[in-house]
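Protocol step 4 of 6: structure prediction from sequence.
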Amino acid sequence: MRPLIGVTSLWDDVKSCGWMWQNYLELIWDAGGMPMVLPLNVSPEAIHEAVVRCDGFLFTGGQDIAPSYFDSRCPQYCQKPALVRDAVEFALFDAARNAHKPIFGICRGMQLINVAMGGTLIEDIPNQVGSRTEHRYVTPGTPTMHEVDVLGESYLFKACAEQVITVNSFHHQAVDRIAPTLNVIARCSTDQIVEAVQANGDDFLVAVQWHPERIYQGRPENLRLVEFFIEAAQKRS
């Protein structure tokens, strides 16, 4: 039986409701898991039920995290947050970590994980870093792509055939001060922006700044990386 993976809901601010990109669910399925979209319910009972029932958790991409959650130096650069998601996901992350459940983060998910574990964020790359590498989604229908250096021993290193890989990029914020118990396992080849992290210890916790769900069919290292996550969740089922 496939391990059950709780997938955090996206948030539509116009319609005031949750929703989901199908490609997140397809990635989990193709990696060997059974995805389940989680409700935006922050009650202790709902969080407890999710952690008990799910074998692992995928924290998805989306809006900026509210600057009140971290030591923000330039909150004026933060875009409108999804406060409903923030409340649910910080509570869920803490509960999942305490239960030693495997965790995988994508884009906003990586930023949330770093903040939840004590790190901070760059509020806006163009204003604060001035990189010549474009990290934001710019041209409709054409993903922004750049190279990433894979660093040291990690699940990402095991998944990759090369030490430099090409990834897509859809973000204007990034990890700044890394959380004490996280290790940087990839950086942008040009501006050294943090692109992937992995937690110390035996529990599986890996997060990437790019969107593997959009490119994994043509770039198999992304699927292999998520397969490691599913294998860790299978051991919990």
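Step 5 (inspection) to follow. DSSP finds seven helices and 13 strands in the chain.
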